[in-house]
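Continuing the batch. This is chain 6 of the set; chains 1 through 5 are on the previous pages. Same settings as before, nothing changed between runs. Recording input and output for traceability.
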Amino acid sequence: MKLCMIGTGYVGLVSGVCFSDLGNEVICVDQDHDKIDSLKKGIIPIYEPGLEELVKKNHKNGRLNFSTDLKKSIANSDIIFICVGTPTKQRSNAADLSQVYNVAKEIRGSISKFKIIITKSTVPVTTGDEIEKIISKTKSKKIFSVVSNPAFLREGEAINDFSYPDRVIIGTNDKRSNKILKNLYSPLISKGAKYINTSRRAAELIKYASNAFLATKITFINEIANLCEKINVNIEDISIGMGLDKRIGGRFLRAGPAYGGSCFPKDTKAITTTADQFKINLSVIKSVVKSNKNRSSILLKRAIKLLNGKIKNKKICFLGVTFKANTDDMRDSSSLTMIPLLAKKGAKINYYDPTGYKTEFSKYKNVTFSKDIKSAMYKSDLIIIHTEWNDFKSINFKSIMKNKKYIIFDMRNIYSQTKMKQLKINYFCVGG
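Output for chain 6:
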């Protein structure tokens, strides 16, 4: 099939590349000329394991192409995916849908025969209705069908998530579109993916409800970790004991920093705003948002306490600054809160992240990027393990930190408390 992916951000690029790898002809469109030129050269704008290889392979085979010509790309495609950003508005918690609606207007002026138009972006309930209204102002509903097909891709594991999904959600009451899309996804269905056909509004809400629930699990276990620290109980025992209950499951039950990234922060806010519009109070999710906002402050207070409240001129090392491992995504990472606050208090901060230097910290004179773990840790008073990169899971602290008293605050609990005690390392973790 001939597919057009509008937007080469995380969802659009990964989905487009993976669809091409299934044998489809895919054109990825973006108005950013520099990004498109780079993609044609095999230069990937995001860090995602395995993505670069797939881009080069399918571009070489002619199944994957990149363009800035939106009108031509739409005209030459059977299925059009809207994959543009839906960030939180600056002055409210609502999703900013301006890019989505602008694309809808562009599509309206570019179609002359039947097209399936799919929202792949995470959008609030009724967004598909509005897209349909925009296009139908000048085009007959007979030549287009608006469908919701949300993406469920974890950063760092996106290719596997696309290739082996738990489910494929198709939100449409149009039998023609449903038949075409079931055929499109047949390679994934044959590998075990559950194909679910719902109403368009239901599909839109499934995505938001899923993200809100996962965010709730993270926030819940973080709050339980706070209790564990007060009563001298290991949070890992709690997570394992809870997770073995099949009704709960073990995923997303690891205590640590606040959730971040491109989805959970904006989607939890957006779903509460949508509910407010319909005069429904999603009090649980609102509490999750509030609790998560406070999470960085709680961990910072503990870090400061470990240094006996003396921060000025202390050397603090951050191992990892992205919101999670295997991604270069800094969006809503708790390091963006912690590092500036510590820097303002006079701490001297070195950080290392496998994905490199971060411009977000460039304005702080006492925040320095280190090229490797050893130099980042050099003569540190406090080492904070912020992100659970594999690079940090087998560090020989005693070898690197010779003749130096230091404290390790492991915010991801990647080390054994027992082992660290045996090694006589001054080690502290979350919820223990």
